[in-house]
Amino acid sequence: MTVFALGYLAFPRALLACFTRDPAVVEVGVKILLVVALFQIADGTQVSTTGALRGLGNTRAPMLANLIGHYPFGLTTGLILCFGFGYGVVGLWSGLACGLLSVALMLVRAWWKLTRDLSSLQPVADFRRHIAESIEFQSGPEP
Questions:
Q1: Which domain holds residue 62?
Q2: Which of 28, 40, 30 is nearest to 4 (CA)?
């Protein structure tokens, strides 16, 4: 995601030229690609920490973070920037990026709180028992 973010920052006009020759669209597109580049970093963090928390058996934190960050915070911020301050589509994307960033920060905090004391972590499943049951299931009961 970082590579794509760098591409959006380094070559916005070249990327947009693949889709349009309209200078007004390119100008708006360059601004949006700046926001999207930042969006990529927050999205990568959010996706990674969501997966890590789910792997630890914590599905509640990702659900709540996404619910709070995207709707009351991100969408509201986007609508205020878009219509209240007149930033248009760039304001809407900026608000959504702020919402995604807030989700990423909430999830990193949840991960940090959950893993700072590694002795308190419990495995979600006993891997050895799972493999043994899987082998037994595949071969069937012994005669």
A1: 2-139
A2: 40
